[in-house]
Structure formats: structure tokens, C-alpha cells
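step 3/5: co-fold with calcium ion
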Amino acid sequence: MTARLLLLEDDPAIARTVAYALERDGLAVTHSLLVDDARRQIRASHFDLLVLDVGLPDGSGLDLLRELRHAERTSTVPVLMLSAHGEEIDRVLGLELGADDYLAKPFSPRELAARVKALLRRAGARPVAGAAPPAAHIFKDDEHGQRISLRGQPLALTRREYRLLAHLLRGAGRIHSREALLAAAWGDDSDSTDRTVDTHIKTLRAKLREVDAATEYISTHRGMGYCLDVP
Ligand code: CA
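step 4/5: write C-alpha cells
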């Protein structure tokens, strides 16, 4: 699996250089020129890391960062802020708002790529060629075919179940709220409820048990949500 990264940067020359350096390192880069577009992209899909410029034509990367930190689904996604040279205030504010790292312009693309990889390692994501997530020995997620197999056996999952399990897998070992799971598997435009998540988790558990009856992979955390535990 490839780590996915969103780059919010309005300077096309910088964006090109950065995207090139990161893609060469095996990351999949989605580029946004505007805060609004980045917000939409983040809502619509999962990113392992975000690189946010501060000054954008339609707003500030710092405001977006603040929003992301307040939303449960994105509260812990690693964020690296970029900003114009010497804007000390941005640096302080960025770190206070929960950015994980900060780079002042001008920077070298190599430096950025190195910091990105360090953040991904810290987050326990699977970057960069070769590094498999711990769960990969037991679960295999074929993102293109939208199929997951457990201990070598393909699971017969519905589309929702696939998205639910894929999300749990990506954040294995972390507790995911029903709200976050709902957003991941159903998107924004649905009138599904927490109960819907519970029902799908139940059928998902049954399907996992058909392959491996000895292990309870998904645990319930009362009042908090669900967690995929990989032994
Ligand atoms: Ca800018």
C-alpha cells in the first residue's frame, strides 16, 4: 500500500517540485491550490499526511489546521506546515494548533521529503517502498480491487463492509468512534446512524470469525467506538 499525501500549496512551481520529490519516494500526492478544495478532498478520502501552506488565495492553512484538529476523523492525522520565510508567528501558531512539523520557505524538496518520511514513520503509517504495516501479515488489503483477505482467504464483503474494515485496518490499534467510521464508510451524505455502524460491525465480525474463529479482531470500547486489534 502506498501512503497518500495531500499537498495544499498555491504556488505551482513549489507544488510541482515538492510533488515530484515525494512521488519519487513512493508516495501518492494529491494537490490542491485552494483551502476549499483541500477541505473537500480531505472530507472525501483518507490521507496519511497533509502538507499545508499558510497563505492561500482563499484563506489560511492555519485555519484549516484548526478545523482538522477539531474534527475527530482528522484530529491525529500528521500535518506539516509550510510558510514564507521568517514568519515566526506562523511557526508558533502552527505548532500550537497541533501541526507536527514546520518548514519555512525556501526549503529543499529533499528536506521536505525527509521530514515527511519521518512523520509517517512516527505515525506508524506504511510509507515508502517495503515498509509493511504490522497488520499486513494477517490482513491483505487490495485497494484497487476493494478486497481484503484474512490469513490468505478472501473475505466476501459488501462495499460498506469493505470500507469499514479498510478504515479500521489503516488505523489498526487505534479506537475509532462510530462517527468517524460512519464518515469513512458512508461519507457525509447519508442518513445512517450509529446503529448502522453497530450492525455492520456485527456482520463484519461474523465474517472474520468464519475464517478465524479463534481470534476476536474487532474490540468494542464502551462509549468510544471500535478498534481493530492485530495480534
Ligand atoms: Ca502561498
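step 5/5: annotate
Residues 4-123 form a domain with the Rossmann fold fold (CATH 3.40.50.2300).
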